[in-house]
Amino acid sequence: MAPLLNFLLASLLGSTIAACSLDAHIKKAGKEYFGVATDPNTLNIPEIASIVDQEFGSVTPENSMKWDSTEPSQNNFNFAKSDILVSFAQSHNKTIRGHTLIWHSQLPNWVTTITSPTVLRAVLTTHITTLVTRYKGLIHHWDVVNEVFNEDGSLRDSVFLRVLGEEYIPLSFRIAHAADPDARLYINDYNLDFSGPKLEGMVALVNRLVQQGVPVHGIGTQAHLVVGNGAIPYFRGTLERLVSTGLEVAVTELDVRMAVPVTEERLRRQREDYALVVKACREVQRCVGVTVWGVSDKHSWVPNTFPGQGAALLWDEEYKKKLAYEGVESALA
Ligand code: XIL
Fold this sequence. Notes:
By secondary structure, the protein is an alpha/beta fold. 46% of the residues lie in helices and 17% in strands. It is built from 15 helices and ten strands.
């Protein structure tokens, strides 16, 4: 009797938890997922694993699928960490946003020093094909190219642009599509949350790609935001500008940082900012989902990257829900 009772209790609790999770809320609002960035280093922490399991429907590898982790030297592939993330997702029924195939950062030296177009084309082809093929059918979105723009809307200098020209972008999408025709392929960037040349550069490039028949399916707007930023109320407008291309959009790396020390006032404003962003996605039909860039303020990338700022996520350093969590809930209610 006891096992049966335990089973019934667990199913009951499980469904109660699932019914009020962020993922359940966003699905009720007609979206595909509410996701989170994680990796084995954070999934190892029981509190994090349980929040990821209970609240989220999608996971993005925070670092484990980047080039420096997956192919640190040529043709020497390492999937130890990304495999852990993928099998967690499979056993916990989460979809996966693959992140990221082509990026100027976290790129090993052996790639950045290539000068021959023939060699770079072959290296890029092998890298993309190997990753996409390994997880074929398991990764529903791939960030194929990441952060290819400068703030003025021109293409960012990188080994890819220098050696291959703009052509590396359509090439990357075509190779990824050949390896997994069912994966939805994204171009992802930051500072698309306000009007200006970078947003327009993205729209123009995507329009060109679509016109050329390149298999690009979505635009990711990272949304690394700052509490109280005056642009946040217009976030919906920028999503609408992105979907004017005819593609879907996703909020891919949401966090809203603040100056530390944390104050009650800043936490209250953060609640409103999170609510505005999530509500914007809710209201724009072709916004398919939201991913937050981590679970707890304890492991966020923010303090290392933006000295003097922190507390950007939905759970505090003790794994307690912040007001920001309520903000998200209220936007989806
Ligand atoms: C960050 C990770 O969160 C950090 O752990 C790592 O040290 C650097 O990269 N834009 C992106 C993400 O596309 O991959 C970055 O992630 C954050 C900015």
